[in-house]
From TrEMBL:
Signal peptide: none annotated. Residues 2-94 form the 2Fe-2S ferredoxin-type domain. Its cofactor is [2Fe-2S] cluster. This is 2Fe-2S iron-sulfur cluster binding domain-containing protein. One of its GO terms (molecular function) is 2 iron, 2 sulfur cluster binding. The lineage of its organism: Archaea, Methanobacteriati, Methanobacteriota, Stenosarchaea group, Halobacteria. Keywords: 2Fe-2S, Electron transport, Iron, Iron-sulfur, Metal-binding, Transport. Gene3D superfamilies: 3.10.20.30. It comes from Halobacterium bonnevillei. The keyword Iron applies. CDD domains: fer2. The keyword rRNA-binding does not apply.
Length: 104
């Protein structure tokens, strides 16, 4: 089991324990914490978070993330399993921030 701290942009934080075969999203839901999600298989990107500290592995390829997103620290909580104690920035606005568009 590893400890994961979820950090929202308003400065609030929640700590959860994530089991060896559990994703961040599953552990958060078990604790009654609502994180955004959609497909739950790494394809839509709705559950995007940013890894601030720690290491994660994926249960399957993160199809919603491009290489540049992974380099920038973005992760998908629906398929991310932390392998060390970690800190994640979470919230609904992270997916929109990740997507660059010239029409902003």
């Amino acid at each position: 089991m590893v400890a994961v701290t979820l950090i929202w942009r308003d400065g609030s934080e929640e700590s959860i324990d994530v089991g060896e075969n559990e994703t961040v999203l599953e552990a958060a839901e078990d604790c009654g914490i609502d994180l955004p999600y959609g497909c739950q298989n790494g394809a839509c990107g709705t559950c995007t978070a940013r890894l601030l500290d720690g290491e994660i592995e994926y249960t399957r390829p993160p199809r919603a993330l491009k290489d540049r997103h992974r380099v920038d620290g973005y992760v998908l909580t629906c398929i991310a399993r932390p392998t060390t104690d970690s800190r994640l920035e979470v919230g609904a606005k992270l997916q929109a921030e990740m997507m660059r568009t010239p029409w902003k």
